[in-house]
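In the laboratory, one determines a bound structure by crystallizing the protein with its ligand and collecting diffraction data. In a computational setting the workflow is compressed into a single prediction: the sequence and the ligand go in, and a structural description comes out. We illustrate the idea with adenosine monophosphate.
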Amino acid sequence: MRIVLVGPPGAGKGTQAALLAERLGIPHVSTGNLFRDNISQGTELGREVQQILREGGLVPDEVTIAMAADRLAQPDAGDGFLLDGFPRNIAQAQALDELLGEGGHKLTAVLDLEVPEDEVVKRIAGRRMCRKNSGHVFHVEYAPPAVPGVCDVCGGELYQRDDDQEDTVRHRLELYHQETEPIIGYYREQGLVVTIAALGPVPEITQRALAALPEADAA
Ligand code: AMP
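The predicted complex, in structure-token form:
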């Protein structure tokens, strides 16, 4: 399955993507996590994008598309993937279509996570990420770790992302409405969009997603 996950920042894309990817046996590809990994490893790409991420802006398309293409060319993504945070605008969506087309593939579905805006802000304010593994995400209220500040999965230190501060969140939401929301219309024309309500307990949302996805085994 080749799936794209869309939804505003704080919709729970990262959380659901990790769970769905595991259930479906496909890699979770998050461009945000790839950028953060590059930043924490001090790579040239990391240095180039650090400031943009801190301010909640969008990394230029050519950089993002090249990084995503590189990741999707790896063998584990050959039979499918779950994209989280990419594409984030129409140009990236077109680039992804081209890239897949070259290999004779196309997307299976675009899963749109719908969440009211006030809920989004609450979720982001309480979000804590693991320093050791960006896929491990907690929330001080909704998904607290057993020991405050420590990742339940790997013992890594939990921290609040720079771009999860309130001002930056507002900017990211604006960018989402301007740049990213139009891709839902783009994919709707291709008949790919499946919308689910991303409210309620995390496992229920995962079940809802599995039930809504074509070919997925919801059992
Ligand atoms: P995320 O973890 O998906 O919220 O992404 C964190 C940050 O990484 C975003 O606020 C952007 O600065 C950058 N980023 C991630 N994915 C993309 C993308 N597809 N295009 C441009 N910038 C991106």
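Residues 2-115+179-212 form a domain with the Rossmann fold fold (CATH 3.40.50.300). Keep in mind that any predicted model is a hypothesis to be tested, not a measurement.
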